[in-house]
Amino acid sequence: MDAFEQTVRRYLALLATGTTAEIIDCFAPGATVEDPAGGPVLTGPAELEKLYGSLEGRRRATDLHWLRVGGPSAVFGFTLSAGAHEIDVVEVMTFDTEAKITSMRAFWSPDDVVTHSSPTTAAPER
Amino acid sequence: MDAFEQTVRRYLALLATGTTAEIIDCFAPGATVEDPAGGPVLTGPAELEKLYGSLEGRRRATDLHWLRVGGPSAVFGFTLSAGAHEIDVVEVMTFDTEAKITSMRAFWSPDDVVTHSSPTTAAPER
Predict the structure, then answer these.
(1) CA separation for the pair B53, B23 (Å, rounded)
(2) Which residue range or ranges hold the SnoaL-like domain (chains A, B) (predicted)?
(3) Nearest to B71 among A37, A73, A90 (CB)
(4) What is the mean pLDDT of residues A32-54?
(5) How far, in Å, CA of B58 to CA of B86, rounded?
(6) Fewer CB in 10 Å around end: N or C, chain A?
(7) Which residues from chain B sit within 8 angstroms of residue A34, using beta carbons?
């Protein structure tokens, strides 16, 4: 597994179980993030914390479906489950020589989001 | 269908049935092409003609599997059949304001290529 694939897999694992700081540590300083692609370009710790901090306190999981690496870049498809939502996402990433993420663009639209109604008898979520 | 999706669909149709000149006309002047991503960056008519000209005279087909558009960019997966080869490709494109392609990066590796034995040769399969 090459270093870029390792970063993708680490990033997806941390989206599911990591802290906001651990997720942001996958990114190089000055990295740019578009989530969704075509939306505002986020950069810097404060803007990334706002994006990824929204995951904290929610039950989360990620499931990688496919991954292609070419040059210092990757494109991959995965499902992000967060609370009652499941989002089918395709992300395009570029990396620096230390395999830190220098740019991320997440391709998804409302059509790619499924919302599950919460079962009323379930145990309380965190 | 937005203009960027139209360009992708036109490009895929031309990969199957178009001339080299028609394919190249989908690109903006100065567009860059990496095929595969991580390989040499091609630019200018001569370099694009060399790449796409290799398709001429071969029986070709394309089959779009999925497409995501975000901002002036798109990512999509398709199968390109050319002669005895079938390649499962994921491409990332960016576009100018006229929906001409300004960059294309094709993510595929030898693992994504299937070669069919010619139907006229009943030779044993490897």
Answers:
(1) 9
(2) 8-103
(3) A37
(4) 96
(5) 12
(6) C
(7) 70-71
Size (chain B), residues? 126
Is the predicted pLDDT of residue B44 greater than 50, yes or no?
Answer: yes
The residues of B carrying an active-site annotation are 11, 35
The rounded distance, in Å, linking the Cα atoms of A84 and A114 is: 8
* CA distance, residue A89 to nearest chain B CA (Å): 10
Full 3-state SS string of B67-108: EEECCCEEEEEEEEEECCEEEEEEEEEEECCCCCEEEEEEEC
Say what the pTM is. Answer: 0.91
Find, in chain B, the residue whose alpha carbon is nearest to that of A74. Answer: B107
CA dihedral (A49, A82, A106, B99) positive or negative: negative
Interface predicted TM-score (ipTM) of this complex, two decimals: 0.89
